[in-house]
Amino acid sequence: MQTPAPVEYERAASLEDAISSLQGRGPGARIIAGGHSLIPMMKLRLATPELLIDINDLAELSYIREQGDEIRIGALTRHVELLQSDLLAERLPVFRDAEELIADPPVRNRGTIGGSLCQADAAEDLSAVCSALKATVVIRGPEGQRVVGLDEFYVGPFMTAVGEAEILTEVRIPLRPGAGSAHEKVERRAGDFAIAAVAAAVWIDGGTIVDAGIGLSALGPTTMRATHAEELLRASSPSEELFAQAGTMASEDCSPLADSRGPVDYKRHLAGVLTKRALRRASARALKQET
Amino acid sequence: MQLTININGKPITREVEPRQLLVHFIRDTAGLTGTHWGCDTSNCGACVVLMDGRPLKSCTALAAMCEGHEIQTVESLESSGRLDPVQQGFHETHALHCGFCTPGMLMIARALLNENPNPTEQEIRTAISGQICRCTGYKNIVAAIRWAAEHEAATKQEV
Hints:
The structure holds 2 protein chains of 2 kinds.
Chain A: E1 8-11, H1 15-25, E2 29-32, H2 38-43, E3 51-54, E4 64-67, E5 70-74, H3 79-84, H4 86-91, H5 94-99, H6 105-108, H7 113-119, H8 125-132, E6 136-141, E7 144-149, H9 150-153, E8 154-156, E9 159-160, E10 167-174, E11 179-187, E12 194-205, E13 208-217, E14 224-225, H10 227-233, H11 240-253, H12 264-286
Parallel strand pairs in A: 1-3, 2-3
Antiparallel strand pairs in A: 4-5, 5-10, 6-7, 6-10, 8-9, 11-12, 12-13, 13-14
Chain B: E1 2-7, E2 10-15, H1 22-29, E3 48-51, E4 54-57, E5 70-72, H2 85-92, H3 102-115, H4 121-127, H5 138-158
Parallel strand pairs in B: 1-5
Antiparallel strand pairs in B: 1-2, 3-4, 3-5
């Protein structure tokens, strides 16, 4: 029987309330939202918080909206809401691609985008999606809020830039013209973490790729960007050869670990194939040629 | 901590540890053993109940997190001796063998039909993708949910 170790529990009535509880308690306090990463970790004693601060009542942290030249997503927005959002499907279709294959329907009813990013599991999908889209996150603490790019957000496996008395409150994704995005994943069975997955975004102007973002899941100790492949794509014209070359670079640059989901050479192979496929679909979407 | 959770429309108040999982609150504290406790790792779906109408794996929620919410378990389906169409469907199409996955399957099916009264086979398969039937009776489970959809529509027309 798996049961978490004894823990105290309180419900936050406001964001300020949650931050002040975190501040008062120190490192033993943890925020809980969907709980679908934290509760399994607590059962296995991989996490042993002394106090859980439940933020599920903070409805003000649950939204998906277009504001200026950004999409802003509240940290408590659940996977099912990301999956069903027509705004995201239209502007950032990579989200729906990814969400269709994240866990399973009951888990998607609970898990949140904030929790997914803060868990910082290298095999998690939304981290790669947000990296490819060059998102920033808003982190709120006792001294106010700061905005951090995802490259600085992931500081190591299961480690983020969120400090002890801080909460991730929002994900911001820049909207730029000529955008296309897509996600490709191979998993062992429905609902599993990826053997490997790739999120790609391209921004195309006048037949030239102005910028590209490639996020890799389960292909390194943390969520990785395929930066060499991104450089190759910049200022080039989209083509099958280019995407294949970018795939080769991603497969060389990633650093997967052998585990129960597969050996290193297989994962590198997937990195190449999935990068190519994701770029192909992202580009077709940017050029509105998707079949 | 003292906790009140509405289960099947009835408030149940108990003194529990904050670490208690919802599945144990339902089975051991409230005594409703219809909800099954399976893999304990949110993979198998045997423990699925509805929270505010949405399926939830009750092994991966603390009971404390469910206070103030409406929980529905498999016991809520039958009323005054009348089976819910999803239960009847499982009976008609032989959709259970050992029965361990059945409570979770029934609750997923109920939630699906509430949201989408006429699901396609693919929509049913997606809905049950977080449920494992180790007797591998998926084909008949899908048929049962289709049976329920068809007969529910017919019943509604009669009324």
